Amino acid sequence: MKITATPASADVYALGEGPVWDAARERLLWVDIVAGAVHEGSLDDALITVTGRQVFDGMVGAVAVSEDGRLLVAEQQTLTRVDLDGRRTELARVLAPGVRSRLNDGAVDPAGRFLIGSLAQDDRRGQEVLARLDESGLTYLDTDLVLSNGLAWSPEGDLLYSVDTLPGIVWVRDYDAATGKTGPRRQAFAIGDGMPDGMCADADGNLWIANWGLGRVECRTPAGELLATVETGAPHTSSAAFAGPDLDTLVITTSTQNLPAPGPGDGRLFTAKVGVRGLPTPYWNPF
Fold first, then answer.
1. d(CA 103, CA 59)
2. What is the Cα–Cα distance from 149 to 169, expressed in whole angstroms?
3. Cβ-based neighbours of 184, under 8 Å, separated by 6 or more
4. Are 9 and 268 in contact (CB under 8 A)?
5. How far apart are alpha carbons 111 and 130 in whole angstroms?
6. What's the CA gap between 183 and 191, in Å, rounded?
7. Are strands 101-108 and 114-120 parallel, antiparallel or unpaired?
8. What DSSP character marks residue 264?
9. What is the rounded (10 degree) CA torsion for 69, 279, 109, 211?
10. Which of 2, 74, 141, 259 could bond to 61 as cystine, CB 3.0-4.6 Å?
11. pLDDT of the chain along its 287 residues, tens only?
12. Is 98 left (phi over 0), alpha (psi -120 to 50) or beta?
């Protein structure tokens, strides 16, 4: 099945990423990594209107939100809490000073912990991390990734899927949300065409994976079978999330990065009705 997404934003983003639906406030959050900006907006009849913007020093990889509206922002190498009054507090340093890496994609687990990965900004390979932040501090789940990217959980919360973009692998491991205990990482499947990027899951347990290079989001079963594609026409399609009161609108981010002549849809947000509903976005549990 092939579905065509519709451009939904007036603004263009250098590297749009990490859409998050905040149900309590009926708002969408997303980042422009290169601009170091966190955006918020309204979703109305598949159109997205920007209602706020916060800018940080350096790049911003991801954003999460707590039930009361506080933000957790993955800055270039650290995690920062943004209180309702705008005050910013560094919570943890994920990457060591001087390391040529930056934080990339992140997501909240079913119990409110925040997971975040990294990517290299030089030619190192196999040294990137996937880390988890909770009240006890940082735990490193992986330290040997090439480019840590999209994260998603099964509907029951007992499986964690994670993308390593450059080798094109979607990993899976058992996950106990109550305790945070994880099982060994194993390969769920590989994608050989394009590069898997951001990811989300639907209520049926299928994965919706943005494909950087092919201009689409791919719906795949947990075993990797391709069920559907959502075409954007923007080659650098970066991430996706289910949004809206019924979680039935797929919001897709794209990028103009490294495109010599960006087209009319490149860097915009897109929306699509895909006939399924997403899983509710867990709230980050601040401390």
1. 8
2. 10
3. 173, 174
4. yes
5. 17
6. 23
7. antiparallel
8. T
9. -100
10. 74
11. 999 999 999 999 999 999 999 999 999 999 999 999 999 999 998 899 999 999 999 999 999 999 999 999 999 999 999 999 999 999 999 999 999 999 999 999 999 999 999 999 999 999 999 999 999 999 999 999 999 999 999 999 999 999 999 999 999 999 999 999 999 999 999 999 999 999 999 999 999 999 999 999 999 999 999 999 999 999 999 999 999 999 999 999 999 998 988 888 999 999 999 999 999 999 999 97
12. left
**What letter represents residue 60's amino acid?**
V
Q: Two tokens at 207?
A: 């994965």
The encoded tokens of residue 143 equal 């330290």
Tokens found for residue 245: 């009161």
Residues with a catalytic annotation lie at 197
Residue whose tokens read 């006890």 = 136
Two tokens, residue 28: 């969408």
